[in-house]
C-alpha cells in the first residue's frame, strides 16, 4: 500500500495521498485562522460599534463579514483532519456541516461582492437612471432573501461526498448518482462562471466609460474602477484557480488516470486552501467601497504614527468635501457610493 512517502489510495476513501503535502496545508490553514479571526473580529467591531453599518448603507459589506466568519470557524477542524491523514472528517455529520458552511461562505461572498460591483456599474454607466441595487441596499430584508436563495445552491454539496470525491466515472455509479453528481457540478461551476462573466462585463463597461469622460469626471470614475478591480483581484485569487483545478480533477477521473488523479487531487486541495484567504482580502474591499469604514478602522486599530498618513491617503475611496463649522474647517470624506 505504501510506496515511499506516497500512499496509493482510491480518492473515494478520502485519505490524503501525500501526508507531507497535507501537513503543510494544515499549517497554512492554521496561519489563515490565526490572522483571519482577529482581523474579522476587529472588522465586526468597527461595523457594529463605530461605523454603524445599518445607518451607512453598508449592509451588504456586513454580510460578507458574516460569511467570512463561517469560513474562519471551519479552518481549525479542516487543519486537524489533514494532520490526521484525512481530506475530510470521517464523521458524516461533521463532514456535511463543514461542507455546508464552506460552500455557504463561498456563495455568500460571491453574491455580495457581485452585488457591490453591480451597484458601482449602475452608478457609473447608467448614472441618473433608477438603480435597483441601491434600492435593495436600503432594505435589510433583502440580505436575508439572498441568504435563503443560497441554501438551495449549497445543499447539493451535501447530497454525497462532494469534497472527496464525486463519483463521476466510477464503476459503482448508478444513473441516480450520475444525475446527482452532474447537478452538483453544474451548481458548483455556475456559482463561479456566471458571476465572473458579470464582473468582467461591469469592469469593461466602467473602463470604457472612463476613456470617454472628461478630466474632471475621470477622477470619480477611476475610483469606481479601483473598487471593481479590488473585487476582481479577490475573485481571481480565491475562486478561479480552485475552479480550474476542479475541471482538471473531473477530467482525470473520467479518463480513469489514477496516478494523475492522486497528483491533481493535491493541487485541487492546495488551491482550495489558497481560496480561504478571502477572509483576509475582503477587508480591503470594504476599504475601497467605503472610505468611512477605512477611516474608522484606521483610527481605532492602526498605530498613531500611521494614522495621519493613512487617513490623508486617497486610495480611490471617495470624494472629499470641506464644510465650515464654528470651530473651523472640518474635512468630511463621503463614500463614492453615495450621491
TrEMBL record:
It is found in: Membrane. Coiled coil: none annotated. It is a multi-pass membrane protein. The chain crosses the membrane at residues 25-48, 60-79, 99-122, 142-162, 186-204, 224-244. One of its GO terms (cellular component) is membrane. Keywords: G-protein coupled receptor, Membrane, Receptor, Transducer, Transmembrane, Transmembrane helix. It holds the Pfam family 7tm_1. SUPFAM superfamilies: Family A G protein-coupled receptor-like (SSF81321). Its main location: membrane. GO terms for molecular function: G protein-coupled receptor activity. It comes from the Eukaryota. Residues 39-286 form the G-protein coupled receptors family 1 profile domain. InterPro entries: GPCR_Rhodpsn, GPCR_Rhodpsn_7TM, HCARs. Belongs to the G-protein coupled receptor 1 family. This is 12-(S)-hydroxy-5,8,10,14-eicosatetraenoic acid receptor-like. It comes from Sphaeramia orbicularis (orbiculate cardinalfish).
Amino acid at each position: 500500500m505504501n510506496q515511499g512517502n506516497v500512499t496509493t489510495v482510491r480518492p473515494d476513501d478520502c485519505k490524503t495521498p501525500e501526508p507531507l503535502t497535507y501537513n503543510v496545508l494544515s499549517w497554512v490553514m492554521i496561519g489563515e485562522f490565526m490572522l483571519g479571526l482577529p482581523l474579522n473580529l476587529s472588522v465586526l467591531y468597527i461595523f457594529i460599534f463605530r461605523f454603524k453599518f445599518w445607518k451607512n448603507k453598508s449592509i451588504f459589506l456586513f454580510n460578507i463579514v458574516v460569511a467570512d466568519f463561517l469560513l474562519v470557524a471551519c479552518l481549525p477542524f479542516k487543519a486537524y483532519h489533514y494532520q490526521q491523514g484525512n481530506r475530510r472528517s470521517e464523521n458524516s455529520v461533521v463532514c456535511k456541516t463543514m461542507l455546508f458552511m464552506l460552500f455557504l461562505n463561498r456563495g455568500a461572498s460571491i453574491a455580495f461582492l457581485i452585488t457591490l460591483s453591480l451597484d458601482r456599474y449602475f452608478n457609473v454607466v447608467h448614472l441618473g437612471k433608477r438603480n435597483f441595487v441601491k434600492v435593495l441596499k436600503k432594505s435589510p430584508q433583502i440580505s436575508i432573501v439572498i441568504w435563503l436563495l443560497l441554501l438551495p445552491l449549497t445543499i447539493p454539496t451535501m447530497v454525497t461526498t462532494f469534497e472527496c470525491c464525486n463519483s463521476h466515472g466510477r464503476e459503482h455509479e448508478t444513473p441516480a448518482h450520475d444525475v446527482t453528481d452532474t447537478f452538483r457540478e453544474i451548481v458548483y461551476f455556475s456559482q463561479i462562471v456566471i458571476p465572473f462573466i458579470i464582473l468582467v462585463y461591469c469592469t469593461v463597461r466602467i473602463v470604457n466609460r472612463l476613456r470617454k469622460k472628461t478630466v474632471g469626471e475621470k477622477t470619480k470614475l477611476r475610483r469606481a474602477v479601483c473598487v471593481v478591480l479590488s473585487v476582481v483581484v479577490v475573485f481571481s485569487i480565491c475562486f478561479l484557480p480552485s475552479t480550474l483545478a476542479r475541471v482538471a480533477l473531473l477530467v482525470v477521473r473520467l479518463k480513469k488516470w489514477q496516478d494523475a488523479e492522486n497528483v491533481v487531487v493535491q493541487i485541487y486541495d492546495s488551491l482550495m486552501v489558497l481560496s480561504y484567504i478571502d477572509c483576509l482580502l475582503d477587508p480591503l474591499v470594504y476599504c475601497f467601497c467605503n472610505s468611512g469604514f477605512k477611516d474608522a478602522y484606521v483610527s481605532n486599530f492602526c498605530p498613531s504614527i500611521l494614522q495621519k498618513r493613512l487617513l490623508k491617503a486617497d486610495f480611490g475611496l471617495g470624494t472629499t468635501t470641506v464644510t465650515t463649522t464654528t470651530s473651523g474647517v472640518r474635512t468630511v470624506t463621503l463614500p463614492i457610493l453615495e450621491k
